[in-house]
UniProtKB/TrEMBL annotation:
It comes from Halosimplex pelagicum. Keywords: Membrane, Transmembrane, Transmembrane helix. Residues 362-394 are annotated as: Disordered. The chain crosses the membrane at residues 397-421. The lineage of its organism: Archaea, Methanobacteriati, Methanobacteriota, Stenosarchaea group, Halobacteria. This is GLUG domain-containing protein. Gene3D superfamilies: 2.160.20.110. Residues 373-390 have a biased composition (Pro residues).
Amino acid sequence: MNRTRAVRTLTLVALVALSVVGPVSGLAVANEQQETTSSPLSEMAGSGTPQDPYVITSVEELQAMSDDLGAHYALGADIDASVTETWNAGNGFDPVGGEDGAFHGSLDGNGHAISGLTIIRPQATNVGLFGITAGTVQNVSLRDVTVNGNEHIGALAGISTGSITGSSATGNLRGTGANVGGLVGANDGQIVAAYAEATVAGSEIVGGLVGTNGGPIRGSYAGGEVRATEVAGGLVGANSNAVTASYATATVSVDRMAGGLVGTNSGTIRTSYAASEIDGNVTVGGIAGTNGNSIVSQTYWDEGVAGVNDSTGDGADIGTALSTGELTGEDALSNLGGFDAANVWMPSEEYPVHQWQRPDVDPLDRWQVPTPTTAPPTPTPTPVPTPSPTPTSSGGAFAVGPGFGPVAVLLAVAALAVLAVRRP
């Protein structure tokens, strides 16, 4: 009898121990997992609001923008991103925002540079610092980037439907598909006072600044090299919106259809010029490969540098051909009717440039650019005591642990009942 009672007592002790240890173990595992998966955002200065953006000072914090696509960010220092060439088994940086959710916050570079960013994803679409952005990006400089992908490839964004101002890129970009640009692969937003001086290559629709453009581009330019099998432009590969007060001084190499400024144009081009060398034989022009009946006004091209005889490759008579001497030097602007020398353009020893290109000029002051909407301050809620969570076996704070607590308690109660019934 004493032996039987001892066994029953030990059983009760074990069950009660399980009821206590079970939830405690589950809580410990849950807390450990939470600590190891916490976002770098929690360690960054700022709170992610327009008034108090998260401050990025490292490439790891730059990647952390993926953790909150709607937050507001600002660079607090130059970022050396060269380590990204070893990330993700050589695939490099993971683009912020994509088909599962576009970036819709803001990033202000504050004039700082991000250098050495590497993204190698040859089968991927929407490749760049941002895969897809619908937000506001300003004063961001990307230097010596290496970006490879399939289509929609750009140093700053694969696709942009937002606002990009005062931003730039240099480096090497390659796409095996369509829509490759030095700054943006496909643009349906606005781009103002931006530039790219990069080597940009793709299969089709390739541009020094933008691959395919469906949004307004103002006061921007592109240099470097542009290479494509089909459809390439010094500034834009394919344009269907408005290009204003912009220029290209690139080398464009293509098998078919190329222009010094745009590869093919179905939009408008005003007060712009091209001084791009064209290397191609089929449907090539000093301004555009094809233009149709699109509006082009007060636009010029350097026929000596272009190496082609016509402004377009489809017979459309647009723009004005000038010699290199007429388009360069202190007197160049006198030959460019419609160019605003008081507010937009200024002469240089070579071709005319934008006034915002002077180091003492802020592009945001020179151009009227919408800024992110400032949200009203969020009131601080009154702290409310939170009751301790009840352990469960199927979810909640203890879901990752053994979850034996409530089961053990029920078993203990059942055992006590059996003992009470069978006690002599």
